[in-house]
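Thread title: Can someone regenerate the structure for this chain?

I was given the following input by a collaborator and told the matching structure tokens would be attached. They weren't. Posting the sequence so someone can regenerate them.
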Amino acid sequence: MSFLQILRRQPASLRLRCACRTYATDTPAAAEQPKPAKAGKKAEASSQASIPTSSCPADTILPGVNYLKGQAPVVALPDEQYPEWLWNVLQPRVYEDDGPGGKKERMERRKINQQAIKDRNFMQTQ
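Best answer:
Regenerated them for you:
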């Protein structure tokens, strides 16, 4: 490690103040027993309702989100005040199969090509 890399590193005091991610529930996931699935839409609705949506309770101060000087701290809102699409942003997109040459086929081919490029670039560095 060069001398300049040491100087560019973030000080330990700043690393300790970073916001930590936590789960909304205090119970560990391993302790929960899966419930038998019921037939119908009620089972899907109950399983979705049991999944916590946000990682912090309402009125929690979110450090590091507000980066402007002299502004009030950013506070988490209740889950009902956020738009519904926010909870599905990180889920992968699902394309319907619309035949040969359709959107789904093009996206799969693009993903395969991107992986081939990554593999080829990795092999060139070896």
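The first helix runs from residue 3 to 8.
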